[in-house]
């Protein structure tokens, strides 16, 4: 299932250009030609001059024309009796109903997400503009899919955003427009920590003026924003960077609609409203921009007041294009701001302002966090272990590392690798590893579910043992997307484990142990067998191992034993393929 992003600008959909990201179309074509059955999900509103969104049939027809594939709409969300498999016999690609018509989409309903992802193996998110929202179609569905990855368009937009936040040229100036200082304060603090100067051009400028103690009409002051403005001013003073505020504004009076008058910023008369920056303000901005090597412009470039025109926007756009032609890196963020620039303008245009504001605030994008992070690991095994040819033991969820440290001390002829999601615990373990002593143990901070194959596949020796001990039961519920044990991890373990290699599983929660056993049986590709009859392994009446066969207990296992509670253990062995 590919989550697609597009807009419908006009009533005559088939006669207009529906705005698609070409990389999204490439994602669909790539999957289709690779042999996948592709479901497309999206939400679309009303074109500008209509009150009703176009039907799924119209959108499917347009998709068919641009993809050169047969796209057929489905109504299987509303009509559960219809089968996806039957639909694929009649079309190349299926289009799911308009998601904007379902309240459950915005509510991230689990039931709706489960229905949406029914029968889906791989989810591909290609709608970066929605990544700051928690939607059933971008976040909820990832709980129920075998794998969740980014599409080509998503990846490209994410890379561009990373580049935007990377500062390589100085002086670096941020031009900030719009209003709502309280909502943007955290992001502006971030910009103040990175930039060599801040330029405020929207109604937000009045909040900074007020914080500086300058006389400002109270009708332009945002309630409750004084503390935020003072902190921004303090940030700038501490880093000794300038804050440029407008000196004058072009204003209009409702009683004299055709008359414009320029006022100093601190002396705007009652009844007058700013619609544009004055000439002195524009001179100051032009002077500052002429010295810049990088400019970030974010937020609406026009003043958000009734009757405001686009003079400010067009003037700033002209300045920025001039700076770009002079070799300055110019980045413009926001759909409205990007419309002011010619094609090609030489500026980097990034329309997803909402996503950028969230990132600048230091928050995680939910749509990004929900995806698997299967990036490749490049590990120099020769520097990690003294002898990388020795057999390898991997402890998944190694915690504080006590098990690995003791095992490494006892088994000097083996190498031990701990994979743990908690970076703080890993850092503590690595501090101990770096102390003088044996060099046959190492730890990596990672989500093993998506990176186990990438990490272990490059190891030059044999993988002889994998342990999963006492995973957190709260993160091992079948409906939980981030549970430790998933199909991807089981298959990676089975593929990389040497013949007669072992998988040791244990938990103090019987349901978790049973589920782990079932997952390894279900996805083990008939290459694993439960060990039941070896002389040194004793089973209880329910088929669980009575004792830990390695004689070394993890800290949680020891805690469970001390309180007299049972442990549920089992062992798999890798067998020859039948």
TrEMBL record:
Q: Tell me the Gene Ontology biological-process terms attached to this UniProt entry.
A: gluconeogenesis; glycolytic process
| UniProt KW Magnesium keyword | yes
Required co-factors: Mg(2+)
One MF term from GO for this chain? phosphoglycerate kinase activity
Q: Which GO terms describe its cellular component?
A: cytosol
Is the keyword ATP-binding assigned to this protein?
yes
Its EC number(s): 2.7.2.3
Q: Which InterPro entries match?
A: Phosphoglycerate_kinase (IPR001576), Phosphoglycerate_kinase_N (IPR015824), Phosphoglycerate_kinase_sf (IPR036043), SAM-dependent_MTases_sf (IPR029063), tRNA_(Gua-N-7)_MeTrfase_Trmb (IPR003358)
What are the record keywords, sorted? ATP-binding, Kinase, Magnesium, Methyltransferase, Nucleotide-binding, S-adenosyl-L-methionine, Transferase, tRNA processing
| Enzyme category, top tier | transferase
Q: What PANTHER family has UniProt attached to this entry?
A: PHOSPHOGLYCERATE KINASE
Subunit relationships: Monomer.
Family listed: Belongs to the phosphoglycerate kinase family.
- Protein name, as recorded: Phosphoglycerate kinase
What lineage does UniProt assign to this protein's organism?
Eukaryota, Viridiplantae, Streptophyta, Embryophyta, Tracheophyta
